Amino acid sequence: MIQTQLYIDGQWQSPIDQGTRAIVSPADESVIAQAAEATRADARLAIAAARRAFDGPWRQTTIRDRARLLNKIAELIDRDAEKLAHLESLNTGKTLTESRTDMGDIAATFRYFAGLVASESGAVNEAPHHVISRTLREPVGVCGLITPWNYPLLQAAWKIAPALGAGNTVVIKPSNLTPLTTHHFTQLVAELDLPPGVFNLVTGGAEVGAELAESLDVDLVSFTGGAFAGESIMKAATGNFKRIGLELGGKNPNIVFADADLDAAVDYALNAAFFHAGQVCSAGSRLMVEDSIYDAFIGRLAERLPRIVIGNGFHGETQMGPVQSAQQHEKILGMVQAGIAEGARLVHGGKRPAGDVYKQGYWLEPTLLADVTADMKIAKEEIFGPVITAERFRSEEEALRAANDTPYGLAAAVWTRDLDKANRMSRALRFGTVWVNDYHPYFPEAPWGGYKASGIGRELARIGLDEYTELKHSYINLAPKAMGWFGA
Ligand code: NAD
């Protein structure tokens, strides 16, 4: 049985009140680990350690030291990639193939930020000859990093790499449903003999996250998760006007025009919606298809859905695992029922698959709800499960209006062979990422984040590093002379 601990001030330790939480396999509901469940008191210790480390010698590290650190972490991730991928699949239920891809992306993220950090240099500004004016980038300070359960280590990496790379100290709080890979990652960091307090792990629930958001000793909070927690973090952050980054949910339209390559569009419509059983913030669960091809498109999806292999993520033939928790399972089934009650047509799925192996665990069939209209709850709210809702549209204008008519703005996709239309739609869709004739790719080099209620700020790319820095104007007068302005 795996047992996890907290990592505070360079020491592995149990929570002050000895709290633990059983971590359950989504595939069969067996207990796979006992995780340390921290409280606010533990979070305060971690924050204090991070504060001391930031105010101490860590500030003297050079960009070379920090670039080397990130590259070293990437090497350790490569070394333990198989172990980490197993833990991620065990804890989240996702297929091993997906977890292996995550680990490759995580190592790439650390290497990308290592390169960026190494190339970082301040600017010397034009100024009078007796003045040295420089623009300097400095770390923000103590960073509280709060991550969700769907991509536990990937989301952590998007935050940890730039935070450490920019010279900050870190307190990370993974979701208390999925702490295992972040715990193993911390073991890797512990191999590196960083000064105590530079990197701290506090596993626990909302109260630990809330402490990070409220603490006057935390300078920045970067959060990935749902709108409810995001809102409370934003409010709490006003206590010391700490910097915040919020990566929130999405309601992401996947828009298929009649002139698209339909073989590819059908195939990717499944990938967009059922990757990681739809538990992806950018999942293309809101399918919008042009009227003239709508019925044929739904027919082609209906043929494919029963062939999707649902199973344990460790089995090689599995294409889709379970959803992560009992709560998600119940919520998704509730959303499907709400859709049917509002008049959507259930084409496939909407229930637990038949068979003894699916009796335990949080299994769902891939689900297709057709004849959905833009006013239905299932077209407006994030479902976060293996469900496609399919709407019909008659014109480019109608598709655009309906797609943008959502409080969210994370990701969208457009399928067409008409380059002019592709460009028009790319520009007019109010989403942080717009794919054309593809779905899901992201790169460390490209920014990730949402418009509107999908969040504040961006991760990845240069801006993903800049968010962890303060910009300073340093002005040095080399030859001060009295001005005689006042009362001379
Ligand atoms: P969640 O909001 O329930 O929890 C996220 C994290 O916040 C967890 O660590 C949780 O313990 C913590 N938390 C909960 N309440 C808190 C509070 N009041 N103060 C501080 N911390 C608190 O989200 P979740 O269910 O773990 O994740 C799913 C959500 O995350 C979905 O909405 C999904 O779209 C979103 N998400 C967004 C992105 C993105 O890049 N935009 C990526 C992944 C997931």
UniProtKB/TrEMBL annotation:
UniProt keywords, alphabetically: NAD, Oxidoreductase
Lineage top rank: taxon: Bacteria
Domain Aldehyde dehydrogenase: 19-473
Enzyme class label: oxidoreductase
Catalytic center residues: E247
Pathway: Amine and polyamine biosynthesis; betaine biosynthesis via choline pathway; betaine from betaine aldehyde: step 1/1
EC number(s) from the headed UniProt entry: 1.2.1.8
GO-annotated molecular function: betaine-aldehyde dehydrogenase (NAD+) activity
InterPro entries: Ald_DH/histidinol_DH, Ald_DH_C, Ald_DH_CS_CYS, Ald_DH_CS_GLU, Ald_DH_N, Aldehyde_DH_dom
Pfam families in the cross-refs: Aldedh
Family as reported in the entry's similarity comment: Belongs to the aldehyde dehydrogenase family.
Descriptive protein name: Betaine aldehyde dehydrogenase
Organism the protein comes from: Cupriavidus taiwanensis
Gene assigned in the entry: gbsA
